[in-house]
Design a protein that fits this description.
This protein is mainly alpha-helical. The chain has 4 helices and no strands. Helices cover 58% and strands 0% of the residues.
Length: 93
């Protein structure tokens, strides 16, 4: 199941990338404010592998919140499995 969660999570990042680069032609509508936020965060990505970036700071990025929420939703819909959502973003998702 861990692999499936990762696939959903990373595919959402691919979706975000397509949206911010105006390459998405699907039916999901994303608010312009969110698109700009995603673009800013992609350009100034806080990676958890950087020593000066905390895990909380990484997790609170809009692109991560969106990808975690998407993976959680897909796992619930397709496998009836609830994933673990980090405490620091639980109230946001």
């Amino acid at each position: 199941m861990e692999v499936q969660v990762t696939c959903f999570h990373e595919s959402r990042h691919a979706f975000q990338w397509k949206v911010i680069n105006s390459e998405y032609n699907g039916s999901e509508i994303v608010d312009l404010f969110i698109i700009q936020k995603w673009k800013d965060e992609m350009n100034h990505y806080n990676s958890p592998t950087k020593k000066d970036i905390s895990e909380v700071e990484y997790l609170k990025q809009e692109i991560e919140i969106d990808a975690i929420a998407f993976a959680h939703k897909m796992m619930l819909e397709h496998f009836n499995v609830k994933t673990v959502i980090p405490d620091c973003i639980k109230d946001i998702i």
